[in-house]
C-alpha cells in the first residue's frame, strides 16, 4: 500500500488501555464477500476506425479509465481511442475497473481482425470474474470504562484482495474513515492486504464504509454485552463532540455549527415511534423462542470528496440545446437532473422562467473525446458535480446573451 494512502493512528493506545476498567482482547469479526448483481452484465462493442483509431461502446462507469487502459493495451495514443457510455444497466462499483477487461478483449480482437467485435458475459461468467466486495478478517482489542466510555482500540485488519491489487489500496483509508464515527479515545491498527488465488476484489457500493461501520457496531455491541447495558447507551456515550471529531477527521470535520450527528441521534433514539417499536419488538422476542426481531439506531459518518467535473451547454441555431457532462447515467436519474438544471440555468432568458425549455434539452452520452477527463461516476456525488458544471456553463451563456 502506498504510504500516502495509509490512514494514520490517533492518540496513545497504551495509555488508553491503562485507563480502562475493562478490556476485551483479541476478539474476532469476519466479513464475507458480496456480488454486485447488476441487471446488465459486462458488455462492450469495439469498432475499428481509420487512422489507427477505435471506437468502443462500453458499459463502464469510468469511461476515461477504459480509454486509458485500452490505449495502453493497443499501444496507441489516448486520442485514438473513443469510449462512449450512453447508459449503464447498474454497476455499484462493478463496472469501474472490471469494465476495462471486456473492453480490452473486444478492442484487441477488433484491432487485429479489422471488424466490429461485441462481447457480453452470461451471468455465471460475470459472477466468476466480478470479484465483489472484499472479505475481511478482523481482530480487535478494546479498553473501556464501567460507564461504557471506550478509551482505546487496536485493530488487526486482514483484507482479501484477490489475485491483483485493483481498488484494494484504497480500502484501508475508507475502512478506518468509517470506523472513526465513534470516539475511540486512542485508535491503532495494523493492516494487511492479502494476495490470494481468487478473482480480484473491487469497489462495491460504499467500499470500505460498509466494512468499517460493521466493525464499529460489532465492537459497540460487544462492549454493551459485557457491561449488560443498552447498545444505544454505549453508542451515545461514544459519539464525538466537535473537539474529538476534529482530532479524528482533521479538516474534514468542517465547522462546529455544521456537526449535527449527536442531535440527530438523540432525536431518533428518543422519538416516540422508535420507543414504541422497540417495546413491540421486546414483547415479541420474549414470547417467541425461535423467531426474533430487532431494531437499532446506527450513526454513520462519510467524508464526501467532490471532484472537478466537466460540462458543456450548446445552444443551436433553432434554439434547441445540447448538453454534455462527464457523468454516466446508471439509473440514478442523472440526465433528468441535468435537464432540469439546464432549464433552470437558462431560465433567465425566457419569459416563462424556463418552464418550456425541458423539451428542447438533449443530454448527450458520455464521450471521452468530446468531454475529456470526465472522471468517474461514483461516490454519490456525480449528480451534484455534473449539475454544477452545467449551471456554471449556463451562467456564462446567460451573461453573453442577456445584452441581445
UniProtKB/TrEMBL annotation:
<dbReference type="InterPro" id="IPR016208">
    <property type="entry name" value="Ald_Oxase/xanthine_DH-like"/>
</dbReference>
<protein>
    <submittedName>
        <fullName>Uncharacterized protein</fullName>
    </submittedName>
</protein>
<feature type="domain" description="Aldehyde oxidase/xanthine dehydrogenase second molybdopterin binding">
    <location>
        <begin position="270"/>
        <end position="404"/>
    </location>
</feature>
<comment type="similarity">
    <text>Belongs to the xanthine dehydrogenase family.</text>
</comment>
<dbReference type="GO" id="GO:0005506">
    <property type="term" value="F:iron ion binding"/>
</dbReference>
<dbReference type="GO" id="GO:0016491">
    <property type="term" value="F:oxidoreductase activity"/>
</dbReference>
<dbReference type="InterPro" id="IPR037165">
    <property type="entry name" value="AldOxase/xan_DH_Mopterin-bd_sf"/>
</dbReference>
<dbReference type="Pfam" id="PF20256">
    <property type="entry name" value="MoCoBD_2"/>
</dbReference>
<dbReference type="Pfam" id="PF02738">
    <property type="entry name" value="MoCoBD_1"/>
</dbReference>
<dbReference type="InterPro" id="IPR046867">
    <property type="entry name" value="AldOxase/xan_DH_MoCoBD2"/>
</dbReference>
<dbReference type="InterPro" id="IPR008274">
    <property type="entry name" value="AldOxase/xan_DH_MoCoBD1"/>
</dbReference>
<feature type="domain" description="Aldehyde oxidase/xanthine dehydrogenase first molybdopterin binding">
    <location>
        <begin position="10"/>
        <end position="239"/>
    </location>
</feature>
